[in-house]
Amino acid sequence: METLEQIKNRAELAARGAKIDIVVNPGPxxxxxxxxxxxxxxxxxxxxxxxxxxxxxxxxNVTGVDWLDRVVKKTIKVKQxxxxxxxxxDQTTEEKIPGYLESVYHLxxxxxxxxxxxxxxxxxxxxxxxxxxxxxxxxxxxLQEREIFDLYGIHFDGHPDLRRILMWDxxxxxxxxxxxxxxxxxxxxxxxxxxxxARAKQHxxxxxxxxGAEKITSHSDVATPNK
Amino acid sequence: MSEGQIDEGLxxxxxxxxxxxxxxxxxxxxxxxxxxxPLQFGLACCAIEMIATAASxxxxxxxxxxxxxxxxxQADLMIVAGTVTKKMAPQIVRLxxxxxxxxxxxxxxxxxxxxxxxxxxxxxxxxxxxYIPVDVYIPxxxxxxxxxxxxxxxxxxxxxxxxxxxxxxxxxxxxEQPSEFxxxxxxxxxxxxxxxxxxxxxxxxxxx
Lengths: 227, 208
Hints:
The complex is a heterodimer. In chain A, strand 8 (129-132), helix 3 (141-152) and strand 9 (154-157) form a beta-alpha-beta unit. By secondary structure, chain A is α/β, with parallel strands linked by helices. Chain A has four helices and ten strands; from the N terminus they run αββαββββββαβαβ. In chain A, strands 1-2-7-6-3 form a five-stranded mixed sheet, with helices on one face. In chain A, strands 4-5 form a two-stranded antiparallel ribbon. Chain A is 18% helix and 33% strand. Chain B is α/β, with parallel strands linked by helices. In chain B, 29% of the residues lie in helices and 10% in strands. Chain B contains six helices and six strands, in the order H-H-H-E-H-E-H-E-H-E-E-E. Chain B has helices at residues 8-16, 24-33, 45-54, 89-98, 109-114, 145-160, and strands spanning 77-81, 104-108, 136-138, 185-186, 191-192, 204-207. In chain B, helix 3 packs across helix 6. The N and C termini of chain B lie far apart (51 Å). The interface between A and B is medium-sized, with 34 and 35 residues.
């Protein structure tokens, strides 16, 4: 397979006006990816599929990612003159990165037996997130784009049948988003810990006036109807 | 002849002499408990164990439960085998409602009795006993076929002890006892209602 740089240059030449960035993965896998601009994404995807040297005819996986707003702190050493002496001083800069919703596609070529090529698209507006659908290019993306629509709330424009797939149609939330608030239906737990304990405690009865050890027990008055 | 009209010792003595005296209730319950037909459906990995129980190695046919029916109209027993998702729960309740009385429910595995490892997840019901009454609970993830057989035998014991008349007669014979339960609706954030209060009450807490 060609390097990402080569693929990027080829695609930018082929699809007029397309802007492609390389998102570097610094992890051990080193699986860097191409960030497509939403406007030309379908054109670039078609090019990636149809070009004889690339031939990415198989989209094996589509997934969503939710990135919240975050602040990245960077510490750099700066040479400064303090009291007439040049010293190295740590300088911390804060960079605010606005959040976005992202869809990630993993592409392979069955014909040329290479891959994966990872491409991404980003939707900055999480209240009304829209991305172009790549289902017209790779049919296998259809159900997975529906899943992303269901769980992350990204609308894929051009998708032939964009409906919820896992949750029911009446459902309003997008449970895989990081700001999803599940229904507060915590109850007594026999062995609670961590977050569940903290949440369940809010539903415990008020504490009587006494010191020392307390024990919370459960009992059930209501016998379930036995047949 | 209703139960209690014949002395146990006399009956044993008669049986020794080759005279078998029984009661309508005993005969009826004996027939019922040895031909429990389960409803044929599985929800998750517990269903694999249920299938193993039905197959020749564990052989639920020894207890008269091998006739898995593909229709709720012909089933006596609902084995809720596996994770009940919130999307699936209304269908389970509807299937239960369509079963004729007397009907029984075995809640099989950690998920079906409480939500199990998926409890507090956004898509999993915290136990099927929130909507329908359960007769036997089997813990385990998944329970082994022996556990399901044990639950089956417990159910047989329960059926055997049910009375057909009198004050303590079985609930399915009482007219005021419901045999159908409301099907939950899909809400905007959760099932509506999240639990049927007539069937299920969360454990009450006491601070001591």
